[in-house]
């Protein structure tokens, strides 16, 4: 079988964050599959076919990609950010595992990209400079009990926390519940950053404390970062920097 | 002051993973500062000055970078991977906070890159497809008690875990201790992957179980990934894929 499947990430929005590897593979593809607004960012060449879809049908998109690759097409599946972090790579492997055995012979590769938390961290300073955890709030099937267990664990371990997909139409209260839970476990003055659409023309940053953090500030384009007990603020004439030192307890 | 400081990451080794933004900023710098083997990867142009150093003097390197930028140079500080994840960005902000107030007026920016866990995850499949934590074992000042607390939290939250810097001359037993601790908390058959030098010519992958994982297999170029209870293996004719489904409990 001559087809292949490449699972790619376009980064968080700034085209200068797309790796040269990803750009080269996109040019070789016969078919490009992804959430329609991501495909709109690309300049496809004549003859390439774009298969845009809604954001809620990841598994259908993954099946279509595998079926086309099995039929001999050169297929690129694109996500925003890194395809391996809350994105299409896991959906493709779910579809592969559940699909016909013949699909397991498909030439598949995943290629890394810049994820939203990295862009947000860069703009803020270095909040991910020490141990951290990463949680998505968008999993509609994830029971609140497991989320609660994970938030408790993040607080018990005094990790920095990056929250993906903090707001969704299906579960609008999750971030509000998460802040409420963390307020019972972490200091009121813990820094909280709302990083919205970083790398796009309308990017914005808002930094506050856990005590003051308002879940209504987040939408689906927002990454929320919550500090550890070590995360610090340096005021500068131009604003300031949020960072977590490399060594635990060094600031005390 | 006309100087500036750009904090950049070269990715985990494959030059095709360096973002175009980082390549452009490197070309504009008058001075490039970093751990000598990272600088050796770059083709500097005539007139650019490379300031190579040992890996253990990050804070000296950060101070030098700030002093040169304050003196009007255009300075690029380079790390492997992403500069914000266990790399130079935090060191620069530590030096900035402790340094002369005049340094706070320096034009500083951090730029994201691909980190080692993302390259490792891509080669393996999609192990970071759901909630995960990231811990560095290299912090010589981090007491074992905090590390133990964090490993316990990772297990209690049933997170996937990425371990950076699993082996060091200063603390050779840390990974051994970490595996021993996790064996008391997680299932014996939990997948463990050793991803070494991914993106370089000598890259290698080794996948085993927590019961069988041997800390001696890791060196400073290795990223260790430990699954959650959800992380699964799909066997294929070419080997297989390790992935964590997007929804918690979906595989049961």
From TrEMBL, chains A, B:
It comes from the Bacteria. One of its GO terms (biological process) is cobalamin biosynthetic process. Keywords: Cobalamin biosynthesis, Methyltransferase, S-adenosyl-L-methionine, Transferase. Residues 7-213 form the Tetrapyrrole methylase domain. GO terms for molecular function: methyltransferase activity. CDD domains: Precorrin_3B_C17_MT (cd11646). It holds the Pfam family TP_methylase. Pathway: Cofactor biosynthesis; adenosylcobalamin biosynthesis. The keyword Ligase does not apply. NCBIfam families: cobJ_cbiH. PANTHER family: COBALT-FACTOR III C(17)-METHYLTRANSFERASE-RELATED (PTHR47036). This is Precorrin-3B C(17)-methyltransferase.
